[in-house]
Amino acid sequence: MTKKTIILIGFILLKFVLQYVLLSPEYDLQRDEYLHLDQAHHLAWGYLSVPPVTSWFSYLIYLLGNSVFWVKFFPALFGVLTLLIVWKTIEILKGNLYALILGAVCIVFSSLLRINMLYQPNSLDVLCWTAFYYIVIQYVITQEKKWFYIGAIVFAFGFLNKYNILFLLIGLFPALLLSDQRKIFAEKKLYFALVLGLLLILPNLLWQYNNQFPIVHHMKELAKTQLVNVDRLGFLKEQLLFFIGSFLVIISALYALVFYKPFSKYRFFFATIVFTLAVFLYFKAKAYYAIGLYPIYIAFGSVFVAEILKSGWKRYLQPVFIAIPLLFFVPMYNLAFPNKSPESIVKHPEKYKKLGMLRWEDGKDHNLPQDFADMLGWKELARKTDSVYSLLPNPEKTLVLCDNYGQAGAINYYTKKGIKAVSFNADYVNWFNLDIQYKNLIRIKDFEEISDEIKETSPYFESSKITGEITNKNAREYKTTIFVFTNAKVSINKKLEDEIIEEKNYNK
Predict the structure, then answer these.
(1) For residue 32, what are the contacts with CB-CB under 8 A and spacing of at least 6?
(2) Would strands 481-488 and 422-423 be described as parallel, antiparallel, or unpaired?
């Protein structure tokens, strides 16, 4: 085993270990993770929230036992594979051992630790961006046509994971067109590869068509409710923060792509980042959409920095470039990850408050950062729902209806009673089982919405009561309330059908 291989294995193990130790066991999963895990039980070629690939991994996690270990394993694995591709890119760019170590340090000690902590499409999205750029570099070096087909497969897989990868092509196309590499468009096999890619994503496109393109509705809603508030200057500022410890390396890459002769055939990568960021800015995209851009530039920058620091007095600067990502990681470690118990943060909130991390979407300061509070209270909700469910007459004819997908997903993940909770929110609107004639209703309501629930719903049932609520004051779902309605006087299925149709029409 070579020295390089031993070092690479060390970085891989370090990456895996960090992904697990940066999350304190006091926290549950995050609300989006529950939705994605529930998709394993409703496999399809598309969803209202995401394309289908996440559901495939969710099904694999389910087969492996559905434990938290496996939930966290796959985003960590995608992070490790991103690291591996950057390592291999440095190798094919003729980088030395120092370049490999520098690139690995920059990748490991970055915002990717936060991205790879959660079971969401983002980790695989970054991996697919990095892999696609690696394939482009391989083609430039070898001119082998097989890379067209490999690229088509990687792009299709990335598309079926998250549509965000379309921005990669939008930025890359004009960059290639304006460079000496434009000759690629004269290659016949490129178009065969495009057909292959189209065939691979066709099932999802057909799903979108058959469901009246919910992605269009989703993007309109996103634009109205979230993207409209995106500040373009803020977008650029956040780009600096994602890889702040690697900033000098990325800047070195941009310089090298313009002025460093060995990189002349890759010069279009300079235009690529400019075009891609410009498109993100034009659409007022969220800052983290662009994270997949940077790993490949860390590879370019590491090779260039290693070259200019390899001799003379400059070689004494080598440890400095290694140390910078590590030094910037220290404050990240202390603040950016839920690696401290909620009680510890509540007792020592000063640094979080100073950085505005305690301010939530409602504009108010709370006990914990919103992201951390989103990982609390779910087990409590599921346990209390299970307890109520088991005491009901005809529990198999009980509908568990939640206000949001986090509540429904958490109950379904933790339940010991086989509950199949649903909601009119997100993909759950398609997962109602109306073959059951429901007699009882367990209604999970956000605290802000509970005032009229008894008044509005109790006339349909013989009895109604409140049986519990989330009592964890640090949870974002604090005071979420459990209502129980038993022995329906009339069929509630017709009312459900009407509301499902109304919600689906809204999604169209």
Answers:
(1) 118, 119, 120, 406
(2) unpaired
**Per-residue model confidence as pLDDT tens digits over 171-189:** 999 999 999 999 999 999 9
Query: Distance between CA 363 and CA 279 in Å, rounded?
Result: 29
Confidence at 405, pLDDT banded by 50, 70, 90:
very high
pLDDT at 312: 83
Overall average pLDDT of the 430-448 stretch: 91
Q: Is 83 exposed, middle or buried (0-12, 13-18, 19+ CB in 10 A)?
A: buried
Give the pLDDT score at 237: 87
Q: Is 248 exposed, middle or buried (0-12, 13-18, 19+ CB in 10 A)?
A: middle
Q: How far apart are CA 160 and CA 418, in angstroms?
A: 30
How far is the first Cα of the chain from the last one, in angstroms, to the nearest whole number?
57
Q: How far apart are CA 58 and CA 64, in angstroms?
A: 10
Contact yes or no for 243/250 (Cβ under 8 A): yes
Distances in Å between the Cα of 460 and the Cα atoms of 86, 262, 438, 440 are 60, 76, 12, 10
Q: If residue 193 lies in a helix (H) or strand (E), which one and from where to where?
A: helix 188-210
Residue 349 burial class via C-beta count within 10 angstroms: exposed 0-12, middle 13-18, buried 19 and up: middle
% of the chain beyond a pLDDT of 70: 96
Q: What is the dihedral of CA 310, 314, 315, 320, to 10 degrees?
A: -120
Distance CA(249)–CA(132), nearest Å, equals 21
Residue 443, φ and ψ in degrees, nearest 5: -110, 120
Residues 6 or more apart whose Cβ sits within 8 Å of residue 447 = 469, 478, 479, 480, 481
| Number of residues that this document lists for the chain | 508
- Model confidence at 450, pLDDT cuts 50, 70, 90, reads low
Residue 394's pLDDT is what? 85
Instruction: Tell me how far CA of residue 12 lies from CA of 6, 100, 107, 412, in angstroms.
Output: 10, 13, 11, 33
Q: State the Cα–Cα distance between residues 133 and 130, nearest whole angstrom.
A: 5
C-beta of residue 341 within 8 angstroms of C-beta of residue 26: yes
DSSP element (H, E) containing 144: none
